[in-house]
Design brief:
Blueprint (H helix, E strand, L loop, with lengths): L7 H10 L4 E6 L1 E14 L6 E14 H10 L3 E8 L3 H12 L7 E3 L7 E7 L4 E7 L7 H15 L4 E5 L8 H14 L3 E4 L13 E2 L3 H8 L6 H15 L3 E5 L5 E4 L4 E4 L12 H14 L4 H15 L10 H7 L4
Parallel strand pairs: 1-4, 1-8, 2-6, 4-5, 8-9, 9-10, 10-11
Antiparallel strand pairs: 2-3, 6-7, 11-12, 12-13
Amino acid sequence: MTLPPLDMQRARELAGRMTGVPVLVVGDVMVDRFIVGRVSRISPEAPVPVVRFAHEYSRLGGAANVAHNLATLGARVSLVGLVGVDEAAKRFGASLALSKIPSLGLVEDASRPTVEKVRVVTERNQQVARIDYEEDVDVSPDVELKLVDRIENLGAQAKVVLVSDYLKGVVTGGVMRALLALKSAFGAPLLIDPKIPHLECYAGATLVTPNNHETETATGRRIRTDEEARTAALDFRTRAQCEAVLITRGEHGMWLSSREAEGAIPAVAREVSDVTGAGDTVVATLALALAAGGTLVEAAVLANHAAGIVVGKFGPSATTAEEILASLPSR
């Protein structure tokens, strides 16, 4: 079953309500750094391209890219995450300031680096290599307490809470318990962009957004058709003990499964430049549309169009409400 498209008048109504909505984002923040150069020869030392440096730039990544997407859509964002005491943290802070996202929710940990992914790319946006600076073990108990404190201080006013889990140590059992307590106390929807090893921690979440591969891993089911997506989504909901699931399926669109509605959302046909960060855009748009009063179906349709826009851009990117509205059918 295919879910109905979104009426333009309703879409404009939801977009108009997005501005200033308070949203809390919790998760693994990172820096996406790009070193750009020209390749004209192969190294005589090894069978690898020689990249002649041209320029470099940094973007917000991980949970910070989710926050950036929300800010671009007009939300008032609070971000809870972890950084080191290093040069990457300074780059991260500068990028955060440019996006006008407060840094009050950040916790410093000098024992580990700021998560940074350095990509060497050509001027034609072809990736040559990637270097990751990171620790992927859970934070220490004292750092976890600081993260929980930030969540409790910043989360009370949030209309929606969003978790961006990259398995880099921030999303611990204690952090998830604090987030679920927040949901119970204030009633704000809790959305999770998941990693399957943490599946049991997500019990009680409002909505979880695995991709096709993650759903197959969690359920042990192959997904090639809509009916297989439907069965796997029901199984995933049971295993994760969440209220709803939205499976992102790339060129096959999405599958939504909840008590209120289920069905396919066809992909928006676009030329794909880079899928990096598309999941961040999906969960950000979903969260903000729900906070603006949209139904799960309405939020998922808007998120689908948002994803179609950002895959046409290079690297982790964001989109605006105006771009999303322009991508919707006019009828």
